[in-house]
Amino acid sequence: MKIALSAVPEIVQRPDYDLIYVETVGPFEKLAPGAWETFWSHASDLDRSTIRAMLGLSFIDPEKEGDDRFVYQAGVAVSAVPTGLTNPLKSRTVAAGKFARFLLTGSYAQLGQAYPLAFQAIQENGLSIRSEFCAESYLNDPSVTPEAELLTEILIPVE
What we know:
Elements: E1 4-5, E2 10-14, E3 17-25, H1 28-42, E4 51-60, E5 70-78, E6 90-94, E7 97-105, H2 111-124, E8 134-138, E9 151-157
Antiparallel strand pairs: 1-7, 2-7, 3-5, 3-6, 4-5, 4-8, 7-9, 8-9
């Protein structure tokens, strides 16, 4: 299946934002769906008017080995962090920075195939990756959007 991913990265500057999330450690494709289930089962009381974006953040920790290297955070960017978050919900401020932006059209199941293509395009364009979380910004609602029309921004941190 051909991946519908923008071929050339757009360089964007993203502002800092507050993130409410749950974190998993292990293979992304295996654990991300469960992370979202856990997130929404604990975040159902969030004031929806404060949600600015739904985001999946991923990082491969070079200091660790095996599946412990893979860190995934499922959550939402919010305009204000509520008081009294309960475990497993956490919050943090994600720093502003420069990112290579790609647009993926279609199923979230394509994300695992899209990342190698995005990293290859970054290399081909002479960009350097910085050590920070990559982000997926889910631009439309999968409960009302046909799978083939889902839009996901893939944001890879660059120097």
